[in-house]
Write a structure and sequence with these properties.
This protein is α/β, with parallel strands linked by helices. The chain is 37% helix and 15% strand.
Length: 242
């Protein structure tokens, strides 16, 4: 086996992005245009049952488009993971509504590249947040969930932000399973239980393009909030046996 010397060039880190999308034709192009290449190698857009031109626009901008018929944020993320190349080192999740700032991705993956973290959460609470970008119900629900994680597991999080990066090998250890609104908090709870190194990086956040399908409706807010709380209490009092 050849011995690597200090003069050898560093092995490039393979970073791939997953974007779950449902009827985001107005914003998906903006998101894809702002993703920095490098360090990103490829982008997978998951068509979660779009009835508009989201998939067409994504494909025209060079994204790999796959379809997941079962509706749900977690279901779309799982489909994206199944489409990843075998040699992916870091997986980044970005929303399709242009509320995140994809150009901040290098700062998000830096703790992983520097081998200080396995999972990095982009925290909107500590970054620049446009007024009204997070409606009150989402803001307070987020704070409650983070408080419960601290009480039950000692996990000090400030956000459940969807803009996040994770080492591929660490993600595989988590065996993610949630198929809808519990995806982000399930990842954070499992990361704590698995002893992963977790950091938060402040990220910017703006008003999304178009109306939210979750926090923008009473029904969506109740469904998302209930599922997040159920996920917390399930993992605290009825953790699945493995």
């Amino acid at each position: 086996m050849p011995v690597r010397t200090s003069s050898d060039p560093p092995t490039p880190v393979r970073v791939d992005v997953i974007i779950p999308a449902l009827d985001e034709e107005r914003s998906i192009g903006l998101v894809l245009d702002d993703i920095p290449r490098p360090p990103v190698r490829s982008v997978i857009v998951v068509d979660n049952g779009c009835r508009d031109r989201t998939a067409e626009i994504a494909a025209a901008r060079g994204a790999i488009v796959v379809r997941e018929e079962r509706r749900g944020y977690g279901a779309a993320c799982l489909r994206g993971l199944a489409a990843l190349a075998a040699d992916t080192d870091i997986v980044v999740f970005v929303d399709a509504d242009y509320s995140d700032h994809p150009d901040e991705l290098p700062a998000l993956i830096e703790p992983i590249i520097g081998d200080r973290a396995d999972l990095v959460i982009g925290t909107r609470m500590l970054g620049r947040r446009e007024r009204g970008a997070l409606p009150p119900q989402a803001l307070w629900g987020n704070r409650l969930a983070c408080l419960l994680m601290r009480v039950f597991w000692g996990a000090r999080h400030t956000d459940l932000g969807p803009f996040r990066a994770v080492r591929r090998s660490a993600l595989e250890r988590l065996a993610m399973a949630d198929r809808d609104f519990g995806w982000t908090i399930e990842m954070q709870i499992k990361a704590r239980r698995a002893g992963l190194r977790v950091e938060e990086v402040p990220v910017s956040y703006r008003r999304r393009v178009g109306a939210s399908k979750i926090s923008g409706t009473v029904r969506g807010t109740i469904r998302a909030g209930s599922k997040i709380l159920w996920t917390v209490f399930r993992w605290r009092f009825f953790p699945p046996r493995r």
